[in-house]
């Protein structure tokens, strides 16, 4: 632990008073106190006076249009699983006709957090009228 008062009157210096708090971003925390700095960051005041923080790792989203909500660490998919069909966003699990000749679908494996960001599209020959 950090020593804040050292007695140097003897041959070997001795610690008379130890620091039992941490200072972090202008605030004081007690030893072993845990605190939340942001929705993604948790910290703890260690016995040696140091602050150790951990940042949450977010899983990959299963959509191309995730949104961040206040007080939540990781983005969420409000519109459900989806992907891009060129510039349009289409839902996963359904075939979508993007124009008269093109059908697209998102390749998506439910529950695996794996989705292709670009849709698989098939163009059909269109008859000219």
UniProtKB/TrEMBL annotation:
Cross-referenced InterPro entries: VWC2/VWC2L, VWC2L_C, VWF_dom
CC per GO annotation: extracellular region; synapse
Stored Gene3D superfamilies: 6.20.200.20
Domain of life: Eukaryota
Domain called VWFC: residue spans: 20-78
Regions that span the bilayer: none
PANTHER family: BRORIN, BRORIN FAMILY MEMBER
Protein name: Brorin
Source organism per UniProt: Macaca mulatta (Rhesus macaque)
